[in-house]
From TrEMBL, chain A:
Residues 1-24 form the signal peptide. This is carbonic anhydrase. Belongs to the alpha-carbonic anhydrase family. Residues 26-266 form the Alpha-carbonic anhydrase domain.
UniProtKB/TrEMBL annotation, chain B:
It comes from the Bacteria. Keywords: Signal. Residues 1-20 form the signal peptide. It comes from Nitrosomonas supralitoralis. Residues 30-84 are annotated as: Disordered. Residues 33-54 have a biased composition (Polar residues). Residues 55-71 have a biased composition (Low complexity). This is Lipoprotein.
Length: 266, 84
């Protein structure tokens, strides 16, 4: 009887471990970004054993050097509107790679591109910026991530410079857990993501640059449409240091344009 | 008599095949109308709440969309747990 119980217990433990091993993504860090493509998942067979291969072979990777891109402002582009209302139950999340805020599951805020609506899923920060201008980084960069029900991913990027402090940014830093994968869902704090947009822009009719790209973290999936605002926001030097207290140098280096142009609505 | 019968049958088949061809010349639908789902309450509510004024505040709604959670792209769940 005891033997049977021990055998069943051992089987259960083994099954749980095996399941975890299969479901967990391989570990990666920004320090090893040059070889993300080579990270192997030994639990998978070819080709899934290189889950981040697109980071190495993709031709439309992000970020890019905006100063190296050809800007085409002759094409008519869709109207861009960031219709972000207040989220009453955001989740402050330490992703293990950056400071992130997940919108609540019934949050209605969205990015309107023409007549299409792309729900805001989360926004997060990189230090320094990922997009550069002629090789020069901004102190930080904000990414709003939107995903439509058909799976399309849209990222709205805002460069961050040093200047006046941003109260919302401060609130985010104060409520994000310091432990990796920590989530703070019970802060009872309301956040309006629109308050991180440049104040002198009309959020209902934004000027922008747009380019096809990818996720800037593994698996570096392409098919992501990037929208970059031409104006920056500011945070204070102290706030930037506070951000760096979480993660520093969590930015991917600029990737080859491979013939891509920046389309401009201006 | 037999010849007349044969000609009548041939003519009938020819006419029938012409109609069949004209039906086939129409493009077939990729998705039959009976398979198309109507837009979810999520989409219609998004359109209603997407006001031109960006300062419009939205509050948490009831969990009417909970029934649609299972149909969300897996990337949503991925990006809630990873930086993306």
């Amino acid at each position: 009887m005891n033997t049977k119980i021990l055998r069943n217990l051992a089987f259960t433990i083994f099954t749980c471990y095996a399941t975890l091993a299969v479901s967990a993504s391989p570990h990666w860090s920004h320090d090893e970004q040059a070889t993300w493509w080579a990270i192997q998942d030994p639990t998978q067979n070819v080709p899934l054993n290189y889950p981040f291969g697109e980071c190495g072979i993709g031709k439309h990777q992000s970020p890019i050097d905006l100063g190296a891109a050809t800007i085409n402002d002759s094409k008519p582009l869709s109207k861009l509107a960031a219709l972000y209302g207040t989220d009453t139950a955001p989740v402050f999340f330490n992703s293990g790679h950056g400071v992130q805020v997940n919108t609540s599951t019934d949050y209605k805020g969205a990015l309107m591109i023409g007549e299409e609506s792309f729900p805001l899923i989360q926004f997060h920060f990189h230090e320094p910026s990922e997009h550069v201008v002629k090789g020069k980084n901004f102190p930080a960069e904000l990414h709003y991530v939107h995903i439509n029900e058909d799976g399309r991913i849209i990222v709205l990027a805002v460069a961050i410079d040093i200047g006046d402090e941003n109260p919302i940014f401060g609130t985010i830093l104060e409520n994000t857990p310091h432990e990796e994968n920590g989530k703070n869902a019970s802060a009872g704090i309301q956040i309006n993501p629109a308050q991180l947009l440049p104040a002198d822009l009309d959020p209902a009719n934004l000027d922008y640059y747009t380019i096809a790209g990818s996720l800037t973290t593994p698996p570096c999936s392409e098919g992501v449409q990037w929208y970059l605002l031409p104006k920056v926001i500011t945070v204070s030097a102290a706030q930037l240091e506070q951000l760096k207290g979480f993660y520093t140098n969590n930015a991917r280096e600029a990737k080859d344009l491979n013939g891509r142009s920046l389309l401009s609505s201006q | 008599m037999l010849i007349k019968l044969f000609l009548a049958v041939s003519l009938s088949l020819s006419i029938a095949s012409c109609f069949a061809e004209s039906d086939d010349s129409k493009s077939k639908l990729l998705i039959e109308p009976s398979q198309q789902k109507r837009s979810s309450p999520d989409a219609s509510q998004q359109k209603q709440s997407a006001q031109p004024n960006a300062s419009t505040e939205s509050t948490s709604s009831q969990s009417s969309q909970d029934s649609n959670q299972d149909n969300k792209p897996s990337m949503i769940e991925y990006c809630r747990n990873h930086p993306c």
